[in-house]
Design brief:
The termini are far apart. The chain has three domains: 42 residues, no CATH class; 190 residues, no CATH class; 128 residues, Cathepsin B, Chain A (Alpha-Beta Complex), CATH 3.90.70. It is an alpha+beta fold. It has twelve helices and 20 strands. Helix 1 packs antiparallel against helix 2 and helix 10 packs antiparallel against helix 11. It is globular. Strands 5, 10, 11, 12, 13, 14, 15 and 16 form an eight-stranded mixed beta sheet that branches. A four-stranded antiparallel beta sheet has the order 4-3-9-6. Strands 1-2 form a two-stranded antiparallel sheet. The longest helix has 23 residues.
């Protein structure tokens, strides 16, 4: 879609496919990047490369948000969850005026910490002029931009003391769960000349390419190693910008564990012997498509009678109980999500909130906190029931259908018989260890 909206980009890509990279670069620079900075002397073009990098970005569409970005609001700075406006702000979402993801470097924080502490605004804790916080507290905003609303390119500006490509984080998360990979490193020399590095972020031993347009055509592109000092091929150059590209949604939402290595997870306090339950909630939280689907479901628009009752040795619950419990599970997931994107989370308050929600969830289901449960049975009975209810079974279930057709003998007449068999397998089943193998 971005390409279709930019005819110059489309034409440049067509020239590259035809092997005419020089023409693509020339047309691009003349048509977009430096149209007012080119002087001609006969057949010779002299380009003035002085200026800000933003002035010469050829495809601004890649750096702009294609949709609205939003903010959610943290706890009241004075009264916490005891503020009378707490419930109002927990549900409030505000349009964020930011159109680009462009952040200054911070030597006192990692790049991921910079993104989690991005310059989201704070506001007075008030609903309107007649509904004010009794203690005049404030609320901090936190971005919750969806995958589709995030721009394809995110920029980190400024000088980081990275010596090699290996020192630069290859993967970051923009809250709450949009993944970005390092695509380019822009180097600058004294504000006069730029060099660019194209990074193969997914393969440390891949082909990282250094481009320098001032060199002769045969030397403009060099292959470099990730562990080579940057000063080896760009002496006296400093890092001007890091460009991160959004990971394709099909690969970003496979439920991998990569977000948990970037964002700091928050634990859920156990209530006596409820470790089996809290473990399953954490597993569910980091399977991103399932978490997002559970949080997004509007219970007010659903009929709880659609949930199948559960009758097992360890859990008996009718549709109404399961529907109410789903509300507490949603609240638990939302609290965990808010905790990992807050700039300075108050862990004491967060732990108390998680513990209280967990108490309500266990009580609603009629479970005894002191009694342990089979984690496999609990997952298959309760959680798979919820997945069926909200319609996400296709995300974790493999359905194989086999068709059989009878082969008739050459001297046999009639119609060949047909047979159809369907096999369904839950790919998210938590299987018990086969103890017999190790006894």
């Amino acid at each position: 879609m971005v390409v279709n909206k930019d005819p110059l980009l489309l034409e440049a890509l067509n020239n590259i496919r035809k092997g005419n990279s020089a023409k693509a670069r020339h047309d691009l620079m003349i048509g977009r990047s430096v149209p007012v900075k080119v002087e001609k002397e006969g057949n010779i073009e002299r380009w003035n490369c002085w200026g800000q990098l933003d002035e010469t970005k050829p495809y601004p569409e890649l750096f702009r948000s294609p949709g609205k970005m939003h903010l959610i609001w943290g706890h009241c700075s004075k009264m916490g969850e005891n503020c009378p406006l707490h419930e109002f702000f927990q549900k409030k979402r505000t349009d964020w005026k930011r159109k680009t993801l462009r952040f200054p470097a911070n030597r006192n924080a990692t790049i991921q910490e910079t993104l989690l502490k991005c310059d989201a605004p704070s506001k007075p804790c008030r609903r309107d002029k007649d509904n004010l916080c009794p203690e005049n507290g404030t609320r901090q905003g936190y971005p919750v931009s969806s995958y589709s609303s995030c721009p394809w390119m995110m920029t980190i500006r400024g000088d980081y003391p990275f010596r090699t490509l290996n020192d630069i984080p290859k993967e970051v998360i923009f809250p709450p769960d949009t993944q970005y990979y390092l695509a380019s490193v822009i180097l600058i020399f004294n504000g006069l000349h730029f060099k660019g590095i194209s990074v193969d972020a997914k393969n440390a031993h891949g082909k990282h390419l250094l481009y320098d347009g001032m060199n002769a055509p045969e030397d403009r592109i060099q292959m470099i190693k990730a562990d080579d000092p940057i000063s080896k091929y760009a002496d006296k150059y400093t890092i001007s910008e890091l460009w991160y590209v959004k990971v394709d949604r099909s690969s970003a939402e496979k439920g991998s564990a990569s977000p948990s290595t970037t964002l700091k997870p928050v634990g859920i306090p156990n209530l006596a012997n409820t470790c089996y339950f809290t473990t399953l909630v954490q597993i569910l939280f980091w399977v991103i498509p399932l978490r997002k689907s559970l949080i997004a479901v509007e219970l007010s628009n659903r009929d709880g009678k659609e949930i199948q009752p559960i009758i097992s040795e360890t859990l008996e619950a009718d549709s109404d109980i399961l529907f109410d419990a789903l509300g507490f599970l949603k609240e638990l997931l939302l609290t965990l999500q808010t905790a990992i994107v807050e700039k300075k989370p108050n862990l004491k308050i967060i732990m108390k909130n998680l513990r209280d929600i967990m108490k309500n969830l266990v009580k609603c289901l009629g479970l005894d906190p002191k009694e342990n449960q089979c984690i496999n049975e609990f997952w298959n009975t309760l959680f798979h029931n919820y997945f069926e209810f909200i319609g996400v079974s296709h995300l974790y279930r493999l359905q194989v259908t086999t068709f059989y057709l009878e082969v008739l003998d050459h001297n046999k007449t009639g119609t060949a018989r047909e047979k159809k068999e369907a096999l369904s397998q839950n790919l998210l089943s938590i299987l018990p260890v086969d103890i017999q193998k190790y006894v």
